[in-house]
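Aim 2 progress update. The chain analyzed this quarter is reproduced below.
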Amino acid sequence: DVAELFTAKAWLMGVQGRQIEAAMLGEGALRLLEGKAELGAELRARMNASNAYIASDPARGLEIASRGVDLAERIGDAEKAAGLAGNEGICALLLGRWQIPIDRATMLDRPHLDGFARLGLAGPSLTARAHLGQVEGSPTAELDAIPRGDLDSAQRESMVGALGALAEYAAGRLEAVEDTAARAGGGTTNPMESALAFCAAAHVEAWLKRPDRLAVAIERLEAWTGTGQVIRIGLEQARAALAAMEGRPDEAERGFRSTLATWRRLGMLPDVVVAELEMLRLLDDHLADRDVLAADAAATIGELGSVTLRARLDELALGEPATEAAR
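Predicted structure tokens:
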């Protein structure tokens, strides 16, 4: 029927990285299924729609996925519940709602789940726990230890690379992010997760003040802007950081302030903090409101409870160079 056709096309658009079309088709399918007892079709529509919203409107993606998880649990579909919880978890990370993926992984992870579902649950949970200082050692190693199940080797490598890069960044293991993100390759499992991993790699180069490597990261991100506004704004922020390093502070400040406005509008508090910290690190005395930005970053970090971001702010206050050991 039409709803199933919309759902199938939403999946195809998502695989191709065309998330705006995917979100529109997914929403159309959900409207057509509203009030009907076609629960399997609704779960598929919620999976594709929530996936499409990860990189464009994570709050909407979280809403769609959360209702899907509850529905899947109600009808006893453990695989669909776990798969939807993976989308929910990525959206929750972008919004700084760490406890959601942690709780879902505790409640839903089971040995009989397929490899895709188990990695999808574990990745967001690891990233959330890393922000809270609850992960020792390499998060990617934990993902690598999860049995592959029915995932082929290319899918698994891409998924571990994308989710692992996000977790390594959250753990403050900055030098591990680039190599881990490189494993995401062409995003054979989820283009948005791969694009988010490449954004994390760009943040590393900005923080460590490596303009040549940041320029390479920017070039790579330019190929992923079709996945949604979150990636486009991440690219804009990377360009602002490069402008700061190349001695164009006015251009850099305009770029950073534009990204800050979008992160705030989308409710993406971790990215608000990262943008503020990069501004403080790269522009410093050029900023008329430096103290206001630092105070806002401190308040938001307190709200998020991120140990890693707190350490980064403390590092700025102490005037110490950024190192992996400093988190």
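The mean pLDDT is 89. The chain has 17 helices and no strands. These observations will guide the mutagenesis experiments scheduled for the next reporting period.
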